[in-house]
Amino acid sequence: MAMTSTADTPQQATVHASAGERIFNFSAGPAVLPVPVLEQARDEMLSLPGVGMSVMEISHRSKHFDRIITSAIESIRELMNLPDNYHVLFLQGGASLQFSMVPMNFLPQDASADYIVTGSWGKKAVKEAKREGKVAIAATTEEGGFRRTPTQDELRLDPNAAYCHFTTNETIQGVQFQLTPDSGGVPLVADMSSDILSRPIPSDRYALIYAGAQKNLGPAGVTVVIIRDDLLARAPEGLHTMLDYRTHVENNSLYNTPNTFGIYIIDLVCQWIKAQGSLPGIENQNREKAGLIYDAIDATDFYRGHAEPDSRSYMNITFRLPNEDLEKQFVQEATAQKLDGLKGHRSVGGIRASIYNASPVEACRALADFMREFERKNG
Ligand code: PMP
Questions:
Q1: 379 CA distance to ligand 1 centroid (A)?
Q2: Mean pLDDT across the stretch 261-282?
Q3: Is 118 in the pocket of ligand 1 (CB under 6 A)?
Q4: Which residue's CA is the closest to the ligand 1 atom numbered 8?
Q5: Whether residue 27 has its Cβ less than 6 Å from ligand 1
Q6: What is the DSSP string of 334-358?
Q7: Between the CA of residue 92 and those of 174, 212, 290, what are the distances in Å?
């Protein structure tokens, strides 16, 4: 039997862009990166300043790379306001491997873990955790088609749970937690793959955060993990070396060869975020950008948002048109106008506009204008 792919981005028509031209990219991931970051990477591709070699050609144990990884770690610490008892790691295997590593490290045989499920990625996390031990579903909004996040009152939390896991932003459904759930004294674990560094969060309420880099942080192939000391201390002995978080903490993510290029890009992206006014600045931009598209959705009945308004994502905007033929036409015409990557995930259908940190406001404005024009002609 064929394994189902975890790919987020469906196949679709490609745009023909002329050499060097950049079109508006609404891909769910890998996704748009800031132009100044790409330009700097291009300029330094053959030779890092003062090094004479590309970042891809130097040892991960060299002093040059040490500067880069230290800067990336310090920047994430600074942006997220992380206290000293947190470690920042750069691992591989994607966010998908974290679905397994979290329970392998923190779900003992005699315990149970709480999972709050608000979409497809949360379900995948549950599937892997169940291989390791007991899982309790603290809340799920699947029955309504994953259109919202649960309220705090709806959470059936076990005060003795090993940890409580949730997905801050469900990339496929476009459903985002607006507030951090209160897990009481239970360690809170979050998959933040599609909204990390998009807004300020109360970092010290999280015991572990993980995120694949390929949406808000950098290229695919590197996963950021942020872990607090007290949770780390709970990992059992005898885990496989590479699957044990302590290995990576003790070796500053250099136990084996990390994705050096990916870490370099993450460092540049962090500098770019600082130049946008850090997380408060980037949050303002993200709200303004999403507002342009949600306004176009809300203006009429032609477009129907998938998520309920108070659970709407500021990163992935999901909506339907009156029928599938119009949706197909919408994607085709948008693609022809160089608005790429808008076809929704097959499990939700319709349209999905992913507008991560690096997505320019002009892209959102162009999409909102296109939506109004498309409705005028077809509504
Ligand atoms: N969690 C979320 C919220 C995601 O959006 C994705 C990828 N789209 C994943 C997990 C899986 O990430 P990866 O492909 O890095 O394993």
A1: 35
A2: 98
A3: no
A4: 8
A5: no
A6: HHHTTEE--BPPTTT-SEEEE--TT
A7: 25, 9, 31
Per-residue CA distances from 30 to 42, 135, 201, 358 (Å): 18, 30, 23, 12
**Segment 121-174, tens digit of pLDDT:** 999 999 999 999 999 999 999 999 999 999 999 999 999 999 999 999 999 999
Q: State the DSSP code for 312.
A: B
Name the DSSP class of 221: T
- Identify which of 169, 191, 193 to mutate to test ligand 1's pocket (most ligand atoms within 8 A of the CB): 193
Taking the complete model, does pTM exceed 0.85, yes or no? yes
To the nearest whole number, what is the mean pLDDT of the chain?
96
Q: How far is CA 208 from CA 128, 189, 379, in A?
A: 17, 5, 46
Q: Report helix, strand or coil for 126.
A: helix
CA dihedral sign of residues 121, 125, 130, 136: negative
Name the residue at shortest CA distance from atom 10 of ligand 1: 95
d(CA 167, ligand 1 centre) in Å: 10
d(CA 226, CA 246): 12
Beta strands 86-91 and 223-228 are: antiparallel
Residues catalogued as catalytic:
121, 191, 215
User: How remote is the CA of residue 376 from the centroid of ligand 1, in Å?
Assistant: 36
> Distance of CA 223 to CAs 17, 34, 75, 87, 379, Å?
31, 19, 16, 13, 43
CA of 184 to the centre of ligand 1 (A): 27
171 lines ligand 1 (CB under 6 A): yes
Alpha-carbon gap, residue 284 to 294, rounded angstroms = 15
Q: What is the mean pLDDT of residues 185-213?
A: 98
Q: In this structure, are residues 146 and 173 in contact, taking their beta carbons and an 8 Å threshold?
A: yes
